Amino acid sequence: MSTDEHAERFILLRPLLFTIVYEILGSVTEADDALQNSYLRWAEVDLATVRDTKSYLAQLVTRQALNAVRTSARRREDYIGSWLPEPLLLDENDASSDVLLAESVSMAMLVLLETLTPDERAVFVLREVFGFDYHDIATAVGKSAATVRQVAHRAREHVRARRKRFEPADAATTARITERFMTAASTGDLEGLLSLLAPDVTWTADSGGKTTAVRRPVVGAEKVAAVLMNLFRQERLAGLRIERVNCNNTPAMVLGGERLEGVFLIEIADEKITNFYAVRNPDKLLAVAAPRRISR
């Protein structure tokens, strides 16, 4: 078999493979590295022995992702402040037509998946999001199919107990509330801001200790509004531009000048803003350059 055929099969499935690995790792840059390592191994495979390319490659990239999780575990333990996944810049409306896919890459779901063990996370992603059978998942994670069933059940119950019901706002509502928020924030309209925030709205910032940011989540409309008023004060914004984008299938603001200052994701439910995820760690902003495609 030619190298061209290896490349064609891999490229065709790359959006799916990237999505699997990103959901396991919560990192765009680490996902890219895992896919690169996977391709090097794939290029050596005799394609005549491959029964199902999709299953084979899913197993291969999952093993690479689990290796990466284990090597990064220590870095996570020593992390300064709140840890958030790397924001995933998407083509506009890339995942919006697929509700399950949209939820699976949401910042809220990725943060929740971080509370699972690496094996639980991989099994949950492969089974619940991508629908692989237990035998294929067992091969990917190096466990028996019976054990994988137990892990899947445990992970499913863990996620179900902790996640809020996912009620995605329609595009028109999301656009309207985001626009009102941008106007209120940029003009210093405190009352306007407060009218858009849920009573228990939460601000979570990830700086990794490398830039100024609160190190613990801020909860409550008035406290979060104060953070926003400080962030958007006019003298701070001098020389910076604000761009609206789609990250993790939710509205987000990119704040930057000569370099990127941060990505701020907005989560909306019941016509109120319920969460802000502020990614300020410069290492996590490197991949916010070109939109990615995701698939399942």
Automatic annotation (TrEMBL):
Annotated ranges, domain RNA polymerase sigma factor 70 region 4 type: 107-158
GO molecular function per UniProt: DNA binding; sigma factor activity
Chain ranges of the RNA polymerase sigma-70 region domain: 13-74
Keywords: Sigma factor, Transcription, Transcription regulation
Domain of life: Bacteria
An annotated GO BP: DNA-templated transcription initiation
Sequence ranges assigned to domain SnoaL-like in this UniProt record: 179-274
Family indicated by similarity: Belongs to the sigma-70 factor family. ECF subfamily.
NCBIfam families documented for this protein: PRK09636.1, sigma70-ECF
Assembly and oligomerization: Interacts transiently with the RNA polymerase catalytic core formed by RpoA, RpoB, RpoC and RpoZ (2 alpha, 1 beta, 1 beta' and 1 omega subunit) to form the RNA polymerase holoenzyme that can initiate transcription.
Name of the protein this chain belongs to: Sigma-70 family RNA polymerase sigma factor
Organism encoding this protein: Microbispora hainanensis
